[in-house]
Amino acid sequence: MTSRAPIASIAVLGAGIVGLSAAVAFARALPGLTVTLIETPDDPMALVDRLPGTLSSITEFHDRIGLRERDLLAAGATHRIGTRLSDWTADGAPFVLAHGERSGTIAPGAFHQHWLNARRAGKIAGFDAFSVPAVLASADKFVHPSDDTNSPISGFDYALRLDPRRYRDLLHTLSRHIGILSVSGALASVERSPDGRVASLMLTDGRRISADLYLDCSGPAAPLRSTLDAQWDDWQTWLPVDRLLLGTATAQAPTPTDELIAVPAGWRFTSVLRDRTLTGLSFAADQTSDSSARRILPAGKTIIPIAPGVRAQPWKHNVLALGDAAVVLDPLANANLHLAHAAILRAIDLLPGRDCALTELAEYNAQSVRQAERVRDYQAAHYLPTGRTRGAFWKRASRLPRPDSLTHTLEQFAHRGRLPFYEDESFDKDDWHGLLLGLGMMPHIADPIASATAPGTIAATLKRLAEATAALPARLPPYPAYLAQLERGQ
Amino acid sequence: MRPTHVVIVGGGTAGWMTAAAVTRLLPNVCTVQLIESTEIGIVGVGEATLPHIRAFVERLGLDEADFMRATHATFKLGIDFRDFGAIGDSYIHPFGTFGRPLDDVGFHHYWLRLAAEGRAGPIGDYSVAVAAARRHRFAIPDGAPDDLAASFGYAYQFDATLFGPYLRRFAEAHGARRTEARIVGVEQDAISGDVRTLRLDSGETVEGDLFVDCSGFRSLLLGDAMAEPWEDWSRWLPCDRAVAMPCTSPDGPIEPYTRATAKSAGWQWRIPLQHRVGNGYVYSSAHITDQAAAEALVASVEGTPLADPRFLKFRAGRRRNSWVGNVVAIGLASGFLEPLESTSIYLAQMAITQLIELFPQRAGSEGISATDRAEFNRMVDMEYDRIRDFLILHYHATTRDDSEFWNHVRTMDVPTTLADKMELFRRAGRVTQYSEGLFLEPSWIAVYLGQGIIPQAWDQRADRPGLNGLDRALASLRDTVASTANAMPDHAAFIARRNATIAA
């Protein structure tokens, strides 16, 4: 028999993409819940609320809140199948990262081990030439993966590229539609009860908001969560970027491919939206001044300092920090919103009673931090010494110390191309293979299982595969045409 | 390049599994020599397995029917636990799921809500594996992923004394060389401690690059030669003896499941094979004498005994590291967990899989890297720790107070990792998630609920549907589960149809 009091009301501080996502997801999951959305002034440093990047996991989040892909397309989203990294390698050759299995089983052993064996034996196409989504991305083409696993165009995922402003509007409309109360105001003070929990929020206009659970979605300053404690794990030792210059350039033809371009001071990125192109420069403040950054990226407008790190206890008492209030990362791997959405769904899956007992909170915090740390590791792995080392930023980035979990991963991979298992990975083995091999990391030892197949057979199979994969994009329409066709179909 | 010479010490289940897998999967990389003595018996007593064994059978390219004939195997859908949570209780831990998730919420949350209203049947009624097991029916899972007919997995129950020889034929056909001898001496490198040479009772000496210790409890190389310390878990798992006695099969159907019945000082297994039934009492020698345990076993078995009771001694725990220097221990030589959840063969299989992936890059002891050893040991640790917690749960989650043994396990301190998991379930039916390793959510749910850990609450979202609608939906699911099971053939008939029956 249920003996505990359920959470009956939540108050969400902050109405950016994170706050709206949380409010809508909680309301959808628990129709009896009273959700109050406090629309505080935007924190310009709240990165999740202004970036267009997502991972393929966003589809699951949208399923949960009842948004379909066509709703997103109508709100300005486009498809993102991969990212081209230019000037990022030692020899400057570009490579593409895309999410999906590589070409299935060709003989006993993992595909990448066969590729490595062929590569050791002689010249062979780049690892990304065997990934269907990477080859499509490279040709600026996109098509939905087929459900038929025999189709060559299957077995991969794609993400969406959001227009942050319009995505926020869409969530806002949805929140009103499902009856979420919103109040606008700013947080003046937080009232605590003797047991340490938050009793109510006082807004500057004198209003008092009380709820069973408070979500702090207000950005990195986390004015609500940080009244409980100032705990914060700093990741600046591991990650080289601490400043971002963001700007907007003129519209270009839609493409399913984002660009990451390494420059001596850091990296530039561009993400093409329907009516404009978002662009940015990530750099290190002690190496590059803001004015130099603006010279490198003339379209740049807004400077955003980034202090990467995580809150070891994003959920404490009856306060849950989400988005930048919980974890801060630069946009390198497009994982910011992914982490926020995953955290929201996890909080709903593990929702405690009104007492917010430590048992559930501890499980939530452990999973959330593990997941954030592995994204951090994946981002830190973009700066390997086997990749680019030219330019002050890269010279230093490639020599940064690494977290133990990443050291372990890299050691294992460098040794024999194996990836150790970690719980709560956002980037799967294929993602890691794509990145590490793209950056020129060559394992020392050949895999014994893959090596049991004669190299001649494998080389011939790989050659055929690369040719077949390379022929795929020509059969597909240009992305703008594909997009138009989708929209006509609706 | 000279191939790595692998010397396997011991020809029980673990030894021949290793020889078969290594010769089959790494044909050009190594040569395999297995040393065994027919004078030394093997522990294998009728083995129940987990569904993972199928991956091993498939990876080696064995024909299932042929393998089942050779080992007198039956199919297995789960384990029937009797008298664990309380005397008179019974539940099946199935190789399959309960119900289906609805709107992102696990089935068991809805079940908890309905059960609290007294309107749900036992949770096993919503599992096809349980329903089929109870009816002694079996079919290969088939259909779309969310079909009930595909909502389960299966394993085998087979005669371990036949499994070894079956794999021996396979391994020898793939080039493994068998030497009949006892080992009388181990020579180690004075500096590194690596094993260099084994001296046999024949006077022969055997050199090798990598030594795989499959010597069972003796742990001849890892325990004796390398002196790897033992980590003792008997404070949580006090059973340290078993007495086994096979019997004739009773008339009637063959159960597609193993039975574990709790007894006053441990528990008793019953594993139905094609030609006989394996029985054994696993007990704590601190709580019952050998004599009394044997008498209890003899008194409770069905069928005619086929042999005298045979005793085994063991202790729960593991060597701190399974791979030290050039010695890798696989099977009982590396550690022991009682067969309550049929994990022995899985643990050997897992270690073999890791060994193959981390196989030394070249012959000679410099071919073995510290990185590989550390990774191997990390994986073995993770598996052992998780299984340990799951086994302890079977003892700790009980209301039994009818013997000193049960009083001890009911009141003992359990590892924090387990205490946290139990508390999380108790609060609202949440199962600590992990994505790799044994015993995922349905297994934990089966044991928690089967042994009386009833959550105080359930996922709030399970309150969304109206109670009557939910009642109807679960009743209809229960009917579908029953009719799915009823549509399956009789287990023994199915074995015959697969041409897997042993010659009479």
Overall description:
Chain A has 490 residues and is α+β, with helices and mostly antiparallel strands. Chain A contains 14 helices and 21 strands. The longest helix of chain A has 23 residues, at 358-380. In chain B, 35% of the residues lie in helices and 20% in strands. In chain B, a hairpin with a 3-residue loop joins strand 17 and strand 18 (276-283). The N and C termini of chain B lie far apart (50 Å). The interface between A and B is large, with 40 and 38 residues.
The main β sheet of chain A shows up as:
7 strands, mixed
Largest sheet of chain B: 8 strands, mixed
Q: For this entry, what is the oligomeric state of its chains?
A: heterodimer
Query: Overall pLDDT of chain A, averaged?
Result: 95
The count of helical stretches of chain A stands at: 14
- How far from one another are the termini of chain B? 50 Å
Query: Unreliable runs of chain B, pLDDT <50, ≥5 residues?
Result: none
Q: Describe the global form of chain B.
A: globular
**Biggest interface, residues from each chain:** A-B, 40 and 38 residues
Shape of chain A: globular
What keywords describe this structure?
heterodimer, A: 490 residues, alpha+beta, seven-stranded mixed beta sheet, six-stranded mixed beta sheet, 32% helix, 19% strand, B: 504 residues, 20% strand, globular
